[in-house]
Amino acid sequence: MQHSHDYLVIGAGMAGEAAAHALREAAPKATIALLGAEADPPYDRPPLSKKLWKGGKEADIFRPIDKARAELALGRHAVSLDRAAHTVTDDTGDTWRYGKLLLATGGAPRRLPFGGDAFIYFRTVGDYRRLRALARPGKHFAVIGGGFIGSELAAALTLNGCKVTLLFPEPGLCARAFPSALSAAVTAYYREKGVDVRPGLTATGADGGTLALSDGSTLEVDGVVAGLGITPNVQLARDAGLAVDNGIVVNERLQTSDQDIYAAGDVAAFPSQALGHRVRVEHEDAALTMGARAGKCMAGVAAPYEELPFFYSDLFDLGYEAVGTLDVRLETVEQWVTPFREGVVYYLEAGRVRGVLLWNTWDQVEHARKLIAAPGPFNAGNVRGRLPITER
Fold first, then answer.
1. Given pLDDT bands bounded at 50, 70 and 90, which one contains residue 391?
2. Is residue 95 a contact partner of residue 87, using CB atoms and an 8 Å limit?
């Protein structure tokens, strides 16, 4: 079957849904279609490892795609892109002709070379449903990965009565992003909450419910869930000859190397004026704001993407928001009201603030963005105390 639309969006996630609404607002009479690989319509992804484990309802995560009046084709994968013909072919053999195209293809979870489909690589609402059905009180889960997703899942399962063993190769939780003292404090906090935290250990094999660990020991579990990050889905773009470099390369208008093709969300590598280099961000704020800007730009509206996205996390009773680059290879400056319970961490490089971690410190994201955009120069002496800013 052949389809033809003014605007075609590949990817029915948060970025694709936000783009559809922006397109409908800017082009009320246009024809719009979204192709989604999942069977479910667009939904908010963060609640899958946060709110839904604390009493939230699954029905509340779905986004109002119907208001965009777009054709929604779910359970379909785009397998080829013909730029000259302006067509996309999906895995059912259907052909989709477009005027302008948005690639919001997201990413695929990194997988281990063993365990197969018995392991849950947590990313989709389908993964949530599968884990939720297994997560009965008293069940023992191994959570593999000590970054953002792994730490959230360990907390979620523990809060729901499960026994959790948390495995990761780093010396502490979120050790690549948090200063060593904060990472150690969070690791100790997880142990206080009942999580069996095993830094420096990884799984090396699996035989049914038995995991082989890197120290030669074994671990008996009822289930394994992994949060190892994602790899951006760039194959469609690469095969079509678009520029790819740690994501699909776009300009400030979210336009790829083809003027009729745009990219947004997890898959887009965009130029950040504040950071001074191209970045790719895998978080909700980036997906929603970038998707909306892409839709406007596709419709001819001047709406360049110049924002610096933020992200957030909930870890039991702790919470944080973060802006920019959180990388302990940068110089870190810590500022605590209460050590490891409330404060700010600044990440510096060459006299500039490159990232800000707001630890249980709220309503400061815009101020953090301005600080990162400021020319400085900043150092440990003059950056401490810049945040929080009290509105008067």
1. low
2. yes
